[in-house]
Structure formats: C-alpha cells, structure tokens
Design brief:
By secondary structure, the chain is α+β, with helices and mostly antiparallel strands. 52% of the residues lie in helices and 13% in strands. The chain contains 31 helices and 15 strands. The strands form three sheets. The chain has an eight-stranded antiparallel β-sheet. Helix 27 packs antiparallel against helix 30 (771-781) and helix 30 runs antiparallel to helix 31 (814-828). The longest helix is centred in the N-terminal third of the chain and has 37 residues, at 158-194. Residues 1-26 are annotated as: Disordered. Keywords: Hydrolase, Magnesium, Multifunctional enzyme, Nucleotidyltransferase, Repeat, Transferase. Its EC number is 2.7.7.59, 3.1.4.-. Residues 447-548 form the HD domain.
Length: 829
C-alpha cells in the first residue's frame, strides 16, 4: 500500500488551504517521491526534507513579504531539524521573531504557515517565540531543550536562527550536569513503560528501550561534551530502524511507530527481506546495538558526574585518587576493579593470554561489576588474532562456568561480550541463535537471551546437583538447535556434543550434556501429558536418562528452562507433577545402582614417598608440581596433554585440625582450590599420615614457595598462626570494596548408601575465601573423623564430599549424621 495524501480541513474558523496556488505543487511532488522506487532510506528522507523545506520557505517568504514583516525566521527542530523526514513524521516547527513585530501580523503569518500543513493531513508541532522565550521554555522543559539541539534554519533571518542554535548549545552544556540525570530518568521510565525493543514481538520502534528515542538521547549526551557513545555500528543501527519505520508508514498509510504482527510480512517485503523473522532479527540487532551504547554511555556519564561532585581539594585527600588515579583492586589474574568497572591490569597482555577475556568476564560478573568497554575491545582484538585452542584449556572452561554461575550479574557482562562479537568467536554455533525471535507468546525473550536467562535461573539451582558445571553449560545450550531445521532438540543434541567437545569436556561429560539437551522437554511434557501411573511412562523416562545424576540435572534444567521462558511456563502445579515423575523415575533407576565413583583412589608413588618422609620426620612435607590434564580426544588423535594448574601434595602425621589448618593456609596465600583429595596412609607402620592432594591456582600474581607454605602450616598446627582471625580480617576488607553476589544458600546433606565404611557428608556451596577451612573446623567441632575427602570447584560452585566416621571408626548413625550435616550447614550460613 502506498501513502495517500489526505485533503482535510483545519480547525473551525481557520482559513482554508490555498489549493492549486504556488504551494499546491508540494502535495503532488511529495506523493510522487513516496511512490517512486528510488530513492529509499536516508536518501528519501533527506529528499523529502528538502522538498518540504522549499515549500515552507516559500510560504514564509511570500506571506512575510506581503505583510511587510522582518526579523522573523522559520526553524525546523527535532527529527525534521536533523533532515530526517519519514513519510508520516510530524513537522516540528518554530516561528522565531525578534519581538518587534506587530502581534496581529505575527499571528496572521503563523496561520498562513500552519494551516496549509493541517490541510494536507500532516501532524504539526508548532510554536511562536522570541529567542529569549525559546531559551526559557527549554530551561523549563527538557524535551524542548533537546529539540533545539537539532534546530535548523529554513527561511527568514539566518542570524536569528544561528543565534538561537548557538545559545541552545551553550545552555545545554552549562546545564548538562543537572539535566543529564533527568534525561536518564526519562529514558528509564520510558523503558519500563514500553519494554525492550530487542525482545518484543510488537515493538514500538521509537519509544521502546533501544529505539529511536534512545539514539536521540545519545546524540544529546555527545553534545554535552561530558561523554560519548561507542560509535561502532550505532549510526547503522539507527538508520535500519528509520528504514523500518519508513516502510511501516508506507504500508499502513498511518503515522505509527508500533510494528504490529499483522504488518510484519508487508514491512519485510517492502524492505526486500526474506521473511518476517529476518525483519525481526535485524530490528533486534539494531536495538541491541543502541541499548548497549546507551548502557556504556550512561555509565560513563555517571562516572564523570560523580568525579565532578567531589571538590578538588577533597579529591586530592581521598586514598588512591590523587593525581587523577583511582584505586585498583585485584579481582583475578590480569583483572582489577577501577572506578566501579572491571578493567585489565596494567601488566595484562591479552595477546599472550587467550583465557583473559573469560577470566575478566567471570571476575566482573562474580563481583557484580560491568566489564569496561576498552577492556573488552582489547580482548576482542587479541582473540581475533590469537583464538583459544580447541579443545579449550581447562581454565577457560572453568571461567565460562564461573561466568554462567554468577546469577543476574551474568546478563550485562554476556551482553557486552556479544556486542563486541566475542561470544560468536568463542562459540561459533551461537551465531544461529543470536537475536533469533520466538513467536510463541509464552516466551519472553529471544532465543539467545532465553539461553542466558536459563543459565541465570540454573545458577540458583546448583545446590541440587553434584555437577553444577554440566547444569550451567546444558542450560546455555539447551535450545541451541533452534537455529537449524527440524526438531530443535534433535539438532541441538548434535550441536551440544560439538560445543562440549570444543569446551574440553571428556567423553562422559559430553554425553551427559548431549542427553540433557536432547531431553530438556522430556520431564515437563511427560508429567503434563502422560499417565504417571503407567509403568511404561516411567520406564521410558528412565531409559532416556539412564542414571540418577543425569535425572537430577535434567530436573534442575527443566525448572530453570521454564522459569526463564516466562510466567506462564511454570507453576506450582507443573512443578509438583514434574517432581512426582522424577521421584518415580529415581525409584525405577534405583533397581540398577550406579557404580560407586566416590571411593578413594589408590595412592600414587609420590604420595607414598611423601607419607614415608612425613612419618620419618614427624612433620609436614610438601611438594609443588605442574599438573597436566589427560587427553580427552579419541585415541588415534593423540592430543597433547594440557596444563590445568599446580598440584600441591601435603603429607602430615595425623593430628587434630590438619584439614582446616591446611585449607586455611591456602586461603591466606590466595590459592584457589580447584580440586582436592584426602586419604590416610601408614607406610612405615608408625601411625597414620594424612595425605592431601590439592589442585590449586593463584588468584593473581605468582604462586607462593612450598617452603613458605610449610612454615605457615607448622605455625597453624601449633597455634601460633591465628587463621580464623586472619581470614575474618580479609573478609571484612573484601566486603568493603565488593558488591554482594546473590548466591543460593549452602546445602549440606547426607549421601545415603554411598559408602559401606563411612558416612558421606556432601557440601554444595558458593566458592569463597576460606570455605574449606570453615567446613573443616565445623567437622572437627562436631567430633567426627575425616577419613577421606573429594573436593571439586566447578566454576563458582564448590561440590565437596567428606567421608567421616565416629570415634569408633564406624559410620555414623542416621540421626548423628543428620546433626553433623546441620552443624556444617549452620557454620556456612
């Protein structure tokens, strides 16, 4: 449909349009321009603006000359002032005068300008003011002030227009520290009212967050000289939204900015696109670019205004802020906090450290901080030239899991990585789901954002599973097949295998992730559509999941997926049905118990050597060495082994408090524990020796020397080093400079039936400084003996199993075991 120019009367008592008078040629020329195939896009908007300029300039010149008026000018403001006139855009006009004209003659001149516009059925926003009145109105109304920033002379006295424009910019820059927070508040209020353009099926191209209004606000911020938006892709994104609005105006014949469902196909066809999904994806990509630019810009505005709010004399007295330098607080190796952002350390070299981008992202998300734009761009440049090896090194995989497990703070960091193209470089399969629309009204988000939201929801459920890393990665990948033809679960299974292998998971873990992706809809569909009393129903689910651990992972994934879909996708009723099904399937699987993988391994020759030396000397013996990860590929591929950290072995003659003392010493030396095992040996028959095998990594900086660790361990065991006090002091300092990450509470349970010789206490908690020390102290206080332990840190989650006995060396009674679990959980809370 093409636009029709309507001939409508103006308000009652107004002079009618002049019909075929000299200005009467404008309607026909305007219609020809809009019906022509060329030009389109920016060229057509500029051509329409020039055509309208000529018509309005002629009206002013003719009628002002006839009335003998001087000292007047016609000024375009707003979008028309920018020379961007869409087919049904308002005409924003200001009749400027020097205050000396006769009011009656001035009113008559205004009528001769406004009524021909109304006669054509065009919307008009108009005013008649002196420069002083215009500046006063701008001071009182932010929207007026923003409009004047785009003021453009059309006709009349050019000096009058130029003087107003110069004064408007001077006023804006002077008042910007006060007006920018007001503008930001308006943008936020509009976003809450209209929603986010990049996720809406029927978005308002102008008013929604990431729309044309936000792009205009960014221009105003740049004009203030206080901050500027990232330029990459911003103008192209704004142009695409304007082109879409033009097509919408032409297909509907109305001045509308809402892209309704029934208009999608026509607008896509008018823009020469394949289908409406391509239209929505382009619209979402454009909105995402503008939203990201807005986030970065408003963050910079806040930083500048906070800096200005501190008086110069006081600024020099603040710690770390002298000479314009902010305090740098380490977050991770190569990453520090500076002025409320996560930035790269001065010594960081992303071109030599391909894991740095994931480490920085994980550190930022865990600290609840934005990742600085310049840090992302440095990493993006480096990773383009020096990509991560495939399969990924173990640290990269762990940092990805840490990022995904940060809860709501994951979202802005992930979006920043996406905006700079890093996600698709790390995970090429992500491209097919990026900005992909979902037309099911149950869904709140696009496919890619839904995947990230599912990981966010899953992070709150990590205490329910013993492999949170598999849960989080499966959450990120469960709908990855939606970018491919056919059943997305079937396609997704294949893609998930490829991605999991790329991330460096071994064959067993890869199979679990693929199973979770393939069957992520199985539980909810079975629970709500099948008879749970039918043994075949339960049997089919049991055959699909095969094991209780996969079942518990699938249960958590099902809930996270539904919660991330939208409010209509999950309810107490659905949750109850799924829980009932899971209980029945677990009972069925229990008839075929899984092998006991929690038992202690046989000691290595190095462990036995250290145990002999410790037994002979009667004191701790330590050994540090680089540890390599076994190859995960096929045997005929013979992949090289991969260093995954440092293995620290400790052998200590058995005595009370060894575990909390050793864990406390590691925490004091800022060593992150990735995994650990504990076992007892008696190699020379002179008493048991406790052997602790740690896989550790420095949070930042270099590793401590083994001799220093040994000295502190001796002091901790003899009581001369007060570890609890030192850790408490560090936690207080950390709390003062860090934001609180909302993590699910710790969960401590008794793993019934896991061992015949000991009681297994399982701890699932947020990894933190001194966590193992607190657990060890709680177990010591409870009066139980730790016979062995298996510690694993999966991203930001600790999943630990402690094999404990009573003083008689036998497993604990059920009641006593529950009391120990409750005591440990209370200590961690």
């Amino acid at each position: 449909m093409t636009e029709s120019v309507e001939e409508t009367a103006g308000p009652a008592g107004a002079p009618t349009g002049s019909g075929p008078a000299p200005e009467g040629g404008y309607p026909a020329a305007r219609l020809r321009l809009l019906q022509a195939k060329e030009p389109t896009g920016p060229e057509r908007r500029a051509a329409l603006a020039r055509l309208t300029d000529t018509w309005l300039a002629g009206l002013l010149t003719r009628h002002a000359t006839a009335a003998g008026l001087s000292g007047t000018a016609l000024v375009a403001v707003g979008g028309y002032g920018r020379g961007e006139l869409s087919p049904r855009s308002d005409l924003d006009l200001l009749l400027l005068h020097d205050g000396r004209a006769d009011p009656g003659a001035l009113a008559a001149l205004a009528d001769h300008l406004w009524y021909p516009v109304w006669d054509l059925g065009l919307a008009l926003d108009h005013s008649v003011r002196t420069p002083a009145e215009a500046r006063k109105a701008a001071r009182e109304d932010l929207k007026v002030q923003l409009g004047l920033l785009d003021a453009r002379h059309l006709a009349g006295d050019p000096e009058l227009s130029a003087g107003l424009r110069t004064a408007a910019y001077a006023d804006w820059r002077e008042s910007a520290p006060k007006r920018l927070p007001e503008l930001h508040a308006l943008c936020q209020e509009r976003a809450e009212r209209q929603g986010e353009l990049q996720y809406l099926l029927e978005p308002d191209l102008k008013e929604a967050r990431g729309g044309l209004r936000d792009a205009t606000a960014l221009r105003a911020v740049a004009a203030s000289w206080l901050a500027d938006a990232p330029r990459g892709g911003l103008e192209a994104a704004r142009t695409r939204l304007l082109d879409t609005r033009d097509a919408l105006h032409l297909t509907t014949g109305r001045a509308t900015d809402r892209l309704s469902l029934q208009e999608h196909d026509q607008v896509a066809e008018a823009l020469g696109m394949l289908d409406s999904d391509a239209l929505l994806r382009q619209t979402y990509e454009s909105a995402r670019t503008i939203s990201y630019a807005a986030d970065v810009t408003w963050r910079e505005v806040g930083r500048v205004l906070r800096a200005r709010s501190v008086k110069p004399v006081l600024r020099g007295l603040l710690p770390g802020r002298g000479a314009g330098k902010g305090e740098r607080t380490p977050l991770a190796e190569g990453v520090v906090e500076l002025d409320g952002e996560a930035v790269l350390a001065r010594a960081a070299r992303p071109e030599r450290d391909p894991v740095l981008v994931l480490r920085a992202a994980a550190a930022a998300a865990q600290a609840g901080l934005p990742l600085a734009t310049h840090a992302i761009r440095r990493c993006a440049t480096a990773i383009a030239a020096h990509p991560l090896p495939v399969p990924w090194p173990a640290e990269a995989r762990e940092q990805l899991v840490t990022l995904l497990g940060a809860g709501a703070h994951t979202v802005p960091v992930w979006e920043a990585l996406e905006a700079e193209g890093i996600v698709t470089r790390l995970l090429p399969d992500w491209e097919r789901v990026r900005c992909r629309p979902q037309r099911n009204p149950v869904h709140t988000w696009t496919v890619d954002r839904h995947l990230v939201e599912t990981a966010v929801r899953a992070s709150a459920l990590t205490r329910r599973v013993d492999r949170p890393d598999l849960l989080l990665v499966a959450a990120l990948l469960h709908d990855i097949g939606k970018g491919w033809p056919g059943d997305h679960s079937v396609a997704g299974e294949t893609i998930a295998r490829d991605v999991a292998t790329r991330l460096g998971f071994d064959a067993r873990d890869t199979a679990v992730i693929a199973t979770l992706v393939r069957h992520h809809l199985l539980l909810v569909e079975t629970a709500t559509r099948r008879d749970l009393d039918d043994p075949e129903t339960v049997g089919a689910v049991a055959d699909a999941v095969r094991g209780t651990r996969t079942l518990e992972l699938l249960h958590a994934l099902t809930e996270a997926d539904a919660l991330a879909t939208g409010p209509a996708a999950w309810s107490a009723w659905r949750g109850g049905l799924v829980a009932d099904l899971v209980k029945r399937v677990a009972a069925r699987i229990a008839g075929e118990p899984e092998p006991d993988v929690r038992g202690a391994d046989e000691p290595t020759a190095e462990q036995e050597r250290l145990a002999i030396e410790a037994g002979r000397t009667g004191g701790p013996v330590l050994s540090l060495r680089t540890r390599a990860e076994p190859p995960t590929g096929a045997a005929d591929e013979a992949p090289a082994q991969e260093p995954v950290g440092v293995e620290l072995l400790m052998a200590v003659p058995d005595q009370p408090g060894v575990l909390p003392a050793a864990a406390g010493v590691l925490a004091l030396h800022r060593l992150t524990v990735r995994a650990a095992d504990l076992l007892f040996l008696d190699p020379i028959g002179q008493g048991p020796v406790l052997v602790l095998s740690w896989r550790v990594a420095a949070e930042y900086g270099s590793l401590p020397e083994a001799d220093r660790l040994r000295v502190d361990l001796v002091r901790a065991l003899d009581g001369s080093l007060d570890i609890p006090a030192r850790l408490a002091e560090r936690e207080r300092a950390y709390a003062r400079r860090s934001r609180t990450v909302l993590a699910p509470p710790p969960r401590v349970t008794v793993a019934a039936g896991s061992s015949r010789t000991a009681t297994v206490i399982e701890v699932r908690a947020q990894d933190a400084h001194g966590l193992l020390h607190r657990i060890g102290r709680a177990l010591e206080t409870a009066g139980v003996a730790v016979r062995s332990a298996h510690i694993s840190t999966l991203g930001a989650n600790a999943v630990d199993a402690f094999y404990v006995t009573g003083t008689d060396g036998a497993p604990l009674a059920d009641g006593a075991a529950q009391k120990v679990a409750s005591a440990v959980e209370s200590a961690l809370r």
